[in-house]
Amino acid sequence: MNPVRSLVAVLGGILLISVVVEVLEFTLVNARAGGAIADMPQYFAVRNQPMMLGAKLVYNTLAAVLGGYMTAKVAGSRERLHGGAAALVQTAALIWGFTAGEYAAFTPVWTRVALVAVTGPAMLVGASIRGRAARSQT
């Protein structure tokens, strides 16, 4: 196991989740608002509508599965171990962001709890899918 490759895999998977989630959220919020958002209160007013929060749970979960899969693919071995490491780091980042982050209070508590609860397991699912695919190819 190459430690540099492991680090790149874990950080890359986390970065992938962040990019996918941010781009999707920004695009959906602007589309729902019918145009460009002028400020953060307006952004959160649109983002915190029930339909948008439901969509957020779905696209965050899918991005986590993708992030776990890509973490495992880049790692090349011990897929679930790398996926678990990425899931642990991502979960810790979410907990910090949802408790001490600048915009923590702008996300409803139930959404924060749900995202923390599903993100890590979703990443492990993605890593497991990649691990099974890698084993079936050998």
What does the secondary structure layout of this molecule look like, with pairings?
Layout: H1 3-33, H2 40-47, H3 50-75, H4 79-99, H5 109-137
Care to describe what's here?
This protein is mainly alpha-helical and 138 residues long. It has one domain (3-137). 83% of the residues lie in helices and 0% in strands. It has five helices and no strands. The protein has helices at 3-33, 40-47, 50-75, 79-99, 109-137.
Contiguous uncertain segments of 5+ residues: none
Structural domain count: 1
State the share of residues found in helices, binned by percent. Answer: over 70%
**CA-to-CA gap between the ends?**
18 Å
Query: What structural category do the secondary elements indicate?
Result: mainly alpha
**SS elements, strand count:** 0
Shape: elongated
Give the SSE string: HHHHH
Tell me the Rg in angstroms: 16 Å
Number of helices: 5
Strand percentage: under 5%
Looking at how many chains there are and whether they match, the oligomeric state comes to: single chain
Instruction: Name the average pLDDT.
Output: 95
The main pleated sheet reads as: none
